[in-house]
Specification:
The structure is a single chain. This protein is an alpha+beta fold and about 290 residues long. It has two domains: about 160 residues, no CATH class; about 90 residues, no CATH class. About 25% of the residues lie in helices and about 30% in strands. The chain contains seven helices and 14 strands. Strands 1, 4, 7, 8, 9, 10, 11 and 14 form an eight-stranded antiparallel β-sheet that branches. Strands 2-3 form a two-stranded antiparallel ribbon. Strand 2 and strand 3 form a beta hairpin. Helix 2 crosses helix 3. It is flat, with a radius of gyration of 22 Å. The two termini are about 20 Å apart.
């Protein structure tokens, strides 16, 4: 395992056609948006979910089991406290022991980081239940994604010819609702800390997996509700040092996204120009396209 020697700051650009990129359960599953600006929002949690799903799909042994070190901690149906207990048991420790030393907790935490990709990548709170594995701060962090321009959510009526209950058998159809965004180009920012990677064991090999996940996560997460979602570009700033060679905000300012014709509504990736200012880069910083 080769640990990270460089800090990374990156810009993720993805878009949606005729879909709902991230519904808000508190608003009838309407696409999330900023009420002050009208810009669409996608939470960091939603992006991480797609990364987790891709890793679970791609990092498998021939028999279908997860490859060593690439199990997913936060997955559908998971009982997290049980996973903490499994880590204790694998180390020959008693998860029910009420007098756990710091050494035992540290060993359990290290085992969780070793076993689960998303724990050593994003971190986790594992201090619940009897098998306390502490809290881990992950080296990879993401912001909310925000659309470049305001988005407008359309509300469509849909019909269903079948019914769920016998008592509704005589009804001809059921009316439902469906929200979509005609088009939206979204921008998120990400950060990778080698100092935190040293603590969790996030390696250069894990970075390769993460890069692929960012580029392909939407290709294997299709649904009628989300329409057509695509990662368009991932522009990364690689620092030669662990502490970094420049501020993330100043580097992000170098990535400019503008609509080609402000007088018309954007309906495609080709309606935008993306430029990266490479002049006078701080010493020790290189620009990468993932």
């Amino acid at each position: 395992m080769t640990t990270l020697q460089s800090r990374y700051d990156f810009v993720l650009l993805f878009d949606v056609h005729d879909g709902n990129p991230n519904g808000d359960p508190d608003a009838g599953n309407m696409p999330r948006f900023d009420p002050e600006t009208g810009q669409g929002l996608v939470t960091d949690v939603a992006i991480k979910r797609k990364i987790r799903n891709f890793v679970a799909l791609s990092q498998n042994e021939p028999d279908g089991r997860p490859s060593p070190g690439y199990r997913i901690y936060v997955h559908e149906g998971a009982v997290l406290n049980r996973l903490h207990e499994d880590a204790y048991t694998a180390l020959g420790l008693d998860p029910k022991d009420k007098k756990k030393s710091k050494d035992k907790k540290d060993k359990a935490q290290a085992k969780m980081c070793e076993s689960y990709f998303d724990v050593r990548t994003f971190g986790a709170v594992m201090s619940t239940g009897d098998a306390d594995a502490g809290q881990v701060r992950g080296p990879v962090q993401l912001t909310f994604a925000r659309s470049i321009d305001p988005v407008f959510a359309r509300d469509f009526a849909i019909t269903r010819m079948a019914v769920t209950n016998e008592k509704d058998a005589d009804k001809e159809r059921t009316i439902g609702r469906k929200y979509t965004v005609a088009y939206g180009l979204y921008r998120a920012h990400g950060f990778i800390s080698p100092s935190l990677a040293d603590k969790t064991g996030f390696s250069e090999a894990d970075l390769v997996v993460l890069k692929r996940a960012l580029m392909e996560m939407f290709e294997h997460d299709r649904s009628a509700a989300r329409g057509l979602m695509t990662t368009r570009r991932v522009i990364a700033f690689r620092h030669d040092s662990k502490l970094g060679n420049g501020s993330a905000s100043s580097l992000f300012d170098r990535v400019r996204v503008k609509r080609r014709d402000p007088e018309t509504s954007a309906r495609a990736w080709s309606d935008y120009d993306v430029t990266v200012d490479e002049t006078n880069l701080p010493v020790g910083i290189k620009i990468e396209e993932w």
